[in-house]
Amino acid sequence: MNEQNITAQLKDIKPLIEIPDSSFYIYWGLIGFAVLLGLGILFFVAKKFWQMRKQNLAKSYLAALKAIDWKDTKKSAYAATHYGRLLATDERRKELFSQLEPMLEKYKYKKVVDEVDDDTRNLFNLYVQVSDESV
């Protein structure tokens, strides 16, 4: 009799219901999103750092061009060619450098060289001025 009483009380208990659980997918989705967000932030920080480094290099090349002392003509011609080539990145500076380079060539490969002529010095000063405006 006791057993019938218990089964009568248990008749209103329903069977277990399947509850859809997507927490596993949400968990891995959030982790994937965080990783992608972190990589994106890292990419933009690295890109900004690289751009700042390039600007600093251009400024240092320009400072080296401005510091050239034309008393030692041969050494100065080599330095002007080297730093001028590194700074020639846009069309206008490439054009000016292509005009300046043959003028500097005549001061490089001789044992004894004359002083720099006015045309070469004027073109060099123009190149430095144009580089200064664009850097």
Concise summary:
The chain is mainly alpha-helical and 135 residues long.
What features would you describe in this structure?
This protein is an all-alpha fold and 135 residues long. The protein has a domain of 81 residues. The chain contains 5 helices and no strands. Helix 2 runs antiparallel to helix 3 and helix 3 packs antiparallel against helix 4. The longest helix is centred in the first third of the chain and has 44 residues. The chain is rod-shaped and about 125 Å long. The N and C termini lie far apart (99 Å). The model has no long low-confidence stretch (mean pLDDT 88).
Structural class: mainly alpha
Helix content: over 70%
Largest sheet: none
Number of helices: 5
The overall pLDDT, averaged over residues, is 88
What Rg do the Cα atoms give?
37 Å
Beta-strand residue percentage? under 5%
The best one-word shape is rod-shaped
Order of helices and strands: HHHHH
Q: Span from first to last CA? A: 99 Å
Count the strands?
0
Poorly predicted runs are: none
